[in-house]
Amino acid sequence: MKDYIPILISLMLVLVNAVVIKAEELKSVIPLSSELTDFRMNQKLEYYNKENLWRYINGSASSYLAYGFEEMVTFQVMNLKNRLEIVVDIYDMGNSLNAFGIFSVERVPEGRDLEFGIDSFQYDNTLFFWQDKYYVKLMAYDMTPKTVQFLSLLAQIMTQKIPEKGKRPRLLTVFPEKGRLKKSERYIKRDVLGQEYFADGYSIDYDRDNNQYKIFLICGKSPKETKQSFQKYLVFIKTVGHITDKHIKIGEQAFAGTHNYYGKVLFARKGRYIVGFLGFDNQNFAQEIIISMFSRLT
Amino acid sequence: MIENNDNLMSRKDFLKKSSTGLLAFALLGEIPFTLLNSKKAYTKTSPEYRILGRAELKVSAVGFGVSRTMEPALVKSAIDAGINFLDTGRIYYNGQNEVMLEKVIAGMRKEVIIQSKIIVSMREKDELNKSTGVSKRIKNMMYSSLKESLKALQTDYIDILLIHGANTVDIIEHEAVMDFFRVAKEKGQIRACGFSSHDNQVELLKAANKSKFYDVIMIPYNHKGSYRHSKGDHYNEWDQQALESELKKAERNNIGIIAMKTCSGGAYSPDGKSRPSYKAALKWVLNHSYINSMAVAMGNVKEINENVQAMF
After folding, report:
1. Shortest Cα distance from B310 to chain A (angstroms)?
2. CB within 8 Å: A239 and B91
3. Between B219 and B22, where is the model more confident?
4. CA A18 to each of CA A49, A55, B127: distance values in angstroms, whole numbers, following the listed order
5. Number of folded domains that form chain B
6. Minimal C-alpha gap between A24 and chain B (Å)
7. How far is B79 from chain A (nearest CA, A)?
8. If residue A277 lies in a helix (H) or strand (E), which one and from where to where?
9. Rounded Cα–Cα distance for residues A160 and A82 (Å)
């Protein structure tokens, strides 16, 4: 036992150090009072981690945790009359894919597009953006012209403080461009299409020539696992619709069918990827799209 | 109040939906043949519905906590399995959870019971003791949230509107909050009002039993008298005896009770010998007549299939 004590102490120091580093990383994104005019920072920073995030955002915590949430900090900005004006939440989502993911499912299509971070928008009294592994919300209590201006200034300062830019997920480029509904791109970390065996999925909505459809791209861990989950989904489709053709020559396996919610569907797999085309009105068109997507997947 | 006969939808629709659900179970190898063939294993072949207190809404004994999913096809699977009670909230996915739900219930609004939740936050700690200007701000905030929910759900009424995560009596007894609910009901924008609470539920239930103002209350309740969140390691335990005493009073006061965290107490074995299961854990909750339904958060078809068995 005595021999292990130094190792245990070292491990504890590493853990404590990691926590401190994380908190310091978050803190480095926060503007300094000296960078603000007409407003001042409330010096009290509140940190929340995986264990207590629910205390701050209630039942929403579950979805943040599912998207790899690590830690967050929230702080308040007061006006010079000491009245609370803005609340800022900075979420460390672990990596930029997770940050994009949570941003994408919380994005409000009617929101006003802005140009902060990688993606951003304003809806009602809140400004949202993501950059690198951070997902940031700035909420104003009253949207006066001065507050709106200040929200933008805060966002700008913060994006400059985040060292890495980050990028939108590479796999979104595999999807066709034509007919793509802006702001509909999503990354779904688990239970894609409501199936526990599908994880790491992307979806985009389309509207082309008055036909609305959805395309999914699901990434398995391996070709073997993908084959198994594809088969499970084929069996599932029979419970919510039926298979119309399971001899389609796309990729390594493909089937067409009907789904009681999505209408006509076409799914194909190749390697560790599955592509699903949901709600098509022309099967040949759907097949061409999937073939072209597979050609872009390495 | 418990009822087993379903009058909520037409007989034809019900047979279509429940047979689809049963077929789903059969093909997936879940309940299936035991449900269809054995009189021992199951006494019911149709889902159980209960009356939600004085709100008099007929709700499925197993409800769907929609917060864990943004997949409309999954919600449809739950409805097809006989679930008609759908719990969402303004806070889930920044309001987009309600938007997703609308896509599923469009064209069948009257066949489902929608429960949504709004956050009531006090701007400063001493705001609870202030008046007029504060009351106006709180009512405006709540009305704004309700408006957004109605818009997202594309409906002119929400069946049950709750204060989301009320943890102090001050909030549920705030005059502005109660006033808001009175007006929303008078306008027909909500049919029932209430609150959800993740802890301090005994004290809150006591207060609700005293005021008799709220129609529905959603609280953690399970066989263990505690829960540890599956993610995040949050732990909460309560005085089960004190809680059940208040729950019985709530039943006498005709207050509808929705249980949550029903699976978070872990799997349950009724006789201590048989293999513990989540289905048994849910059945334990439903064995109490003061529980009208449960908001069970489910993220995939497998979980729906497992949990819905508790109401057959």
Report:
1. 20
2. no
3. B219
4. 13, 23, 38
5. 1
6. 21
7. 12
8. strand A273-278
9. 27
Amino acid, res. A96: S
Contact B82, B18 (CB under 8 A): yes
| Nearest-neighbour CA in chain A from B271: distance (Å) | 30
Looking at residue B123, which CATH number applies to its domain? 3.20.20.100
Range of the domain at B293: 2-311
Structure tokens that stand for A111 in this block: 């929101």
CB A53 to CB B232 under 8 A?
yes
Report the distance separating Cα B141 and Cα B163, nearest Å.
Answer: 12
Exposure of A234 by Cβ count < 10 A (0-12 exposed, 13-18 middle, 19+ buried)? middle
List the pLDDT tens digit at each of the 298 positions of chain A: 677 777 777 777 776 666 666 678 888 898 888 888 778 888 789 999 998 898 888 889 999 999 999 999 999 988 777 676 799 999 999 999 999 999 999 999 999 999 999 999 999 889 999 999 999 999 998 788 888 888 898 999 999 999 898 899 999 999 999 999 999 999 999 999 999 999 999 999 999 888 999 999 999 999 999 999 999 999 999 999 999 999 999 999 999 999 999 999 999 999 999 999 999 999 999 999 999 999 999 6
Sign of CA dihedral B37, B39, B41, B44: positive
What pLDDT score does A67 carry?
97
ipTM attached to this prediction: 0.92
pLDDT of residue B126: 46
- Give B-chain residues touching A238 at CB under 8 angstroms: 27
Nearest to A195 by CA among B188, B242, B301: B301
Q: Which domains does chain A have, with CATH numbers?
A: 2-161 (3.40.1000), 170-296 (3.40.1000.20)
Q: Which residue of A51, A63, A141 is in closest CB contact with B233?
A: A51
List, in order, residues 6 or more apart from B198 with CB less than 8 Å away.
A54, A58, B165, B167, B220, B236
Query: Cβ contacts (< 8 Å) between A235 and chain B: which residues?
Result: 27-28
Cβ distance A193 to B73 less than 8 Å, yes or no, reads: yes
Q: Do A106 and B96 touch (CB under 8 A)?
A: yes
**b/e map A121-146, b = 16+ CB within 10 Å:** bbbebbbbbbbbbbbbbbbbeeeeee
Q: Enumerate the residues of chain B whose CB falls inside 8 A of the CB of residue A196.
A: 299-303
Question: pLDDT tens for residues B74-110?
Answer: 999 999 999 999 999 999 999 999 999 999 999 999 9
In the structure encoding, which two tokens stand for residue A80, read together?
């010079």
Cα angle at A76 between A73 and A77, to 5 degrees?
135
* Chain B residues in contact with A124 (beta carbon < 8 A): 148
Q: How close is the nearest chain A Cα to the Cα of B266, in Å? A: 17
Chain B residues whose C-beta is within 8 A of a chain A C-beta are 20, 23-24, 27-28, 67-74, 76-77, 80, 89, 91-96, 104, 119, 123-124, 148, 164-165, 198, 229, 231-234, 297, 299-303
